[in-house]
Design goal:
Layout (H helix, E strand, L loop, with lengths): L1 H7 L14 H6 L4 E3 L6 H8 L4 E3 L7 E4 L1 E4 L3 H4 L8 E4 L11 E8 L2 E8 L3 E8 L4 E5 L2 E3 L2 E3 L3 E6 L2 E9 L2 H34 L12
Parallel strand pairs: 4-5
Antiparallel strand pairs: 1-2, 3-8, 6-7, 7-13, 8-12, 9-10, 9-13, 11-12
Length: 218
């Protein structure tokens, strides 16, 4: 997953929620099925003892959804207690939102790219179940917008009124530099082989008959 890629690149921020023992946090992440293992929490232990291998979580959040209310939180795990998190988002800084809540529909969802169509009559917050990590950027109709953190762990951005297409793209600087260095390496390799071929061709043309030119390479 992209979260695993981000972790391997060393760019994943610390997680605010606990996905090992808290069903609520798993629902926020959009998890629908959970493998039952003993020792995780009391509810799963009871299911394990009944021989149940998989547990279906009720009401997982959709991949993309809009909300029109947001509260500032420095401790999402604490502030989620008793919160209607399907309707209210927790964010790092104040944002200006207004209802009613519009509609969001996922158009594309593949590694590194998530595209969503939105239609709302007010400023809403688009929340994804994709883990927040540096290297993601967002565009609304091709114009760059800030990627925000929702509930401490997930990606979000503010959506203006109207119909829009929103794209989240994973494009870290390390990836861009890697592609550039790879292209430079390929270009240098091609140039070197072209020079070697030209030198050998020149020597072959200048060599007397029945004299084989000495190779430049072992």
């Amino acid at each position: 997953s992209l979260r695993g890629v981000a972790c391997r690149l060393g760019i994943e921020p610390a997680r605010a929620l606990d996905y090992n023992v808290n069903f609520r946090d798993l629902q926020l992440a959009g998890t629908k099925w959970l493998r039952v293992r003993y020792g995780t929490n009391q509810e799963l232990n009871a299911l394990y003892e009944q021989g149940i291998e998989w547990f279906e979580l009720p009401d997982p959040m959709s991949r993309a959804r809009l909300v029109s209310e947001a509260l500032v939180s420095t401790d999402p795990a604490r502030d989620l207690e008793g919160l209607d998190y399907a309707r209210i988002a927790l964010v790092d800084a104040p944002i200006d939102l207004e209802g009613p809540v519009g509609e969001a529909r996922v158009l594309e969802d593949r590694p590194g790219v998530i595209a969503v169509s939105t239609n709302t009559s007010g400023r809403n917050l688009l929340v994804l179940t994709e883990a927040y990590a540096r290297g993601w950027r967002a565009e609304i109709d091709g114009a760059a917008v800030p990627v925000l953190r929702a509930y401490g762990d997930f990606q979000a951005c503010v959506i203006p009124a109207g119909e829009h297409t929103v794209r989240f793209i994973f494009d870290p600087a390390s990836w861009r530099w890697g592609k550039r260095l790879t292209a430079i390496g390929i270009a240098l390799s091609i140039a070197w082989h072209a020079v070697v071929f030209w030198v050998l061709s020149s020597r072959s043309a200048e060599a007397p008959p029945n004299v084989r030119p000495r190779s430049l390479t072992p």
